[in-house]
Amino acid sequence: MGRPVIGITAYVERVSWGSWVDVPGALVPHRYVRQVEDAGAIAVVIPPRPDADDGTALEIVERLDGIVLAGGVDVAPELYADERHASVQASRPDRDSTELALARASAEADLPVLGICRGMQVMAVAAGGMLEQHVPDRVGHHDHSPAPATYGNHPVRTVAGTRLAGILGEQVDVPSYHHQSVLRHPGYVASAWAGDGTLEAMEDPAASFRLAVQWHPEVGTDPRLFRALVEAAFAAR
After folding, report:
1. Rg, the chain, Cα only
2. Gene3D superfamilies, from UniProt (predicted)?
3. Is 216 a catalytic residue?
4. Which residue among 16, 119, 135, 230 is least enclosed by CB atoms within 10 Å?
């Protein structure tokens, strides 16, 4: 049947290479691509569209075997009807609209999905949930995101009986870089927690494979989540 095709959401950013300076480019950290390919799939980049809607998202979903909703900037708080905290990053409406539409379309189609960091938050917001806009206000530390461009590392404990626990076991150390987390997640069950009470993963028990983590497995050395996604994508074909 050939290898599954996994889409990875991305930015459009001003980038430079060779003689080309400050040119718009579709950009995603190559670690995502490498992990998907090492797990046995073909990776394709999904750039955000300023005109994205559910119809466009459905067209994309119909051509894929799975999706990685990748990390990135904060989801606009206005999309979950909350006032903007001073720490919230400048919004990226093109990513918000594209990824929220992809989250809805993939859920409707039961397409295998792995949400990573922002991707987990997008999935929660698309389902009508709500985010905690600045975790340090509650936990009193910055261990989840210790410094700019610096990943934290901390243990998370999975919830017994969940798909995530079956993949990773009872506890795992994870690389993290986030100052927000999911507060409400309609349709999903919690599947991992940090010791400070921060929700670290969620999943849809009714889906073939619809799982999200707050950490960044693409920067670590543990390939199990990407392998599980690719296995689910192959089975779904």
Report:
1. 17
2. 3.40.50.880
3. yes
4. 16
Domain residue limits, the chain: 5-9+22-236
Reply yes or no on whether 141 is catalytic. Answer: no
Task: Give the C-alpha separation, 117 to 61, whole Å.
Answer: 21
Task: With CA atoms as reference, report the closest residue to 211 among 180, 176, 166, 178.
Answer: 166
Could you report the per-residue pLDDT of 28-75, keeping only the tens digit for each?
Answer: 999 999 999 999 999 999 999 988 999 999 999 999 999 999 999 999
Q: Which of 99, 117, 144, 178 is catalytic?
A: 117
| Backbone conformation region of residue 128, classed left if phi is above 0, alpha if psi is from -120 to 50, else beta | left
Question: Do the beta carbons of residue 48 and residue 9 sit within 8 Å?
Answer: yes
* Cβ pair 201, 228 in contact under 8 A: no
> What pLDDT was estimated at residue 220?
87
